[in-house]
Amino acid sequence: MKRKYFYTPYLPDLSLLLLRLFAGLSMAFLHGLPKLNKLMGGGEIRFYDFMGLGEGVSLGLAVFAEFLAALLLAAGLFTRLASIPLMITMATAAFAVHGADPFARKEMSLFYLVVFLVIFLQGPGKYSVDARLGK
Questions:
Q1: pTM for this one?
Q2: Which terminal CB of the chain, N or C, has fewer other CB atoms within 10 Å?
Q3: CB neighbours of 56 closer than 8 A, spacing ≥ 6?
Q4: How far, in Å, CA of 89 to CA of 119, rounded?
Q5: Distance CA 73, CA 79 (A)
Q6: Cβ atoms < 10 Å from Cβ of 97
Q7: Over the Cα atoms of the chain, what is R_g?
Q8: 57-82 pLDDT per residue, tens
């Protein structure tokens, strides 16, 4: 008979909560908020021009993903939907912005990309706004 050490039924949902909170809040406040301040600062914008949309539009899309979508993800509100712009932004950072750079420069983008992919695949878990709303 195989024993399951350290397993209780709430651990998968608690794990998703911790993952969502850490990834969402760190993305929002360590990456999204500085970009939001840059966007609202009014000076000249120097940012990666995603698909020729322009630096301002590209920065706005990054702010939407890294700040707003990250906060939604942390709360567990529209979790799977919120993870999509985050995955696109991290894939862009890893493969376009840092595509020619050594792995160490793109490691954090890839790490966040995998975390957001896991959250997308697993969903928000029971400890989320989505669960409370019955989505």
A1: 0.89
A2: N
A3: 39, 45, 47
A4: 15
A5: 5
A6: 16
A7: 17
A8: 888 899 999 999 999 999 999 999 99
